[in-house]
């Protein structure tokens, strides 16, 4: 079985072909066309511009992905239907519908959050039959649009335990980077600046809040953290604001505040639900410090819990994870006429 997947939920236009032979899955091709450079000047994704770019890029990406996969016979089309930016999602959905009509193949609608979770199961020699021992799992999906803690009882069985009440973790990285004048996307830039900081060299003694860290629920809130960064920044004289030492220290402090909250709440959920594994996903899961500190904490506090993180390249949006999710949802093939984009689609 060969699945062609399409992803346009935010600012990456992506297509991939996945081959499933018996229980072995193989990526035949994967193309990601990123718009980040275009959106950088706005300090975030500009939806109408993103929509136009998807429209322009989809036929190009489609041609490339088929060529790279050596023009395979496609058995099913998978497409992200939500959550995401509605005008962007529609571009992918309409493109997929058109393909389905032409190829007369079935269509599988995919939830973007579920796809981020499935990014963990991408591997060239992966045997999908051995995965039962991961569940129940606690999944933390952290991206530019979402921050959700999800209880995963099995493939396809999800319950949202908590989510952000305001900004997503990635959005917080992006907004802090904008305050500091560092460009977009903020996550990788802040991570790079933070890596240059040596904790013993503290000059500014920056103190930032860890919103909701002590609360028993599984919700998050990041807008207060961003505001605290803004106040600290505004209270500094212009010379300090622009100084590399201040930027490095602030990047380190804000990254650590985000990491502390994410780890604390996820580990608490894992303990409470007796999880066999913790699974990360989404663009923020590409953060090296987050990955390292999570590993350390799990080994120290819940050493019998497995820890799954996607390869860095599959943390941010891509169509391979959509194809993976589609393979597991292959029984959900549906009539293309029934498919529509839903910006607020929930998992579960
Ligand atoms: O999953 P994704 O590609 O798109 C959405 O579904 O939103 O995530 C993009 C987000 C951006 O906010 C970006 O700043 C963040 O992921 N990000 C990172 C890193 N790489 C990307 N955040 C922290 N550290 C990183 N290394
Ligand atoms: Zn995403």
Describe what this molecule looks like in 3D.
There is one protein chain. With 348 residues, the protein is an alpha/beta fold. It is built from eleven helices and ten strands. The strands form two sheets. Strands 3-2-1-4-5 form a five-stranded mixed β-sheet, sandwiched between helices. A five-stranded mixed β-sheet has the order 8-7-6-9-10, with helices on both faces. The chain is globular, with a radius of gyration of 20 Å. The model has no long low-confidence stretch (mean pLDDT 95). Residues 10, 143-145, 170-171, 173-174, 185-188, 191, 282-284, 286-287, 316-317 line the site of 5'-O-[(R)-(carboxyoxy)(hydroxy)phosphoryl]adenosine.
Short synopsis of the structure:
41% of the residues lie in helices and 20% in strands. The chain has 348 residues and is of the alpha/beta class.
- Tally the beta strands: 10
Which architecture of the largest domain per CATH?
Answer: 2-Layer Sandwich
The largest sheet, given as strand count, sense and whether it forms a barrel, is: 5 strands, mixed
User: How much helical structure, as a percent, in the residues?
Assistant: 40-55%
For the largest beta sheet, what order do the strands appear in spatially?
3-2-1-4-5
| Secondary-structure content class | alpha/beta
Q: What share of residues are in beta strands?
A: 15-25%
What's the N-to-C terminus distance?
26 Å
Q: Number of helical runs?
A: 11
Q: What's the gyration radius in Å?
A: 20 Å
CATH H-level superfamily title of the largest domain:
ATPase, nucleotide binding domain
From the 3D structure, determine the CATH topology of the largest domain. Nucleotidyltransferase, domain 5
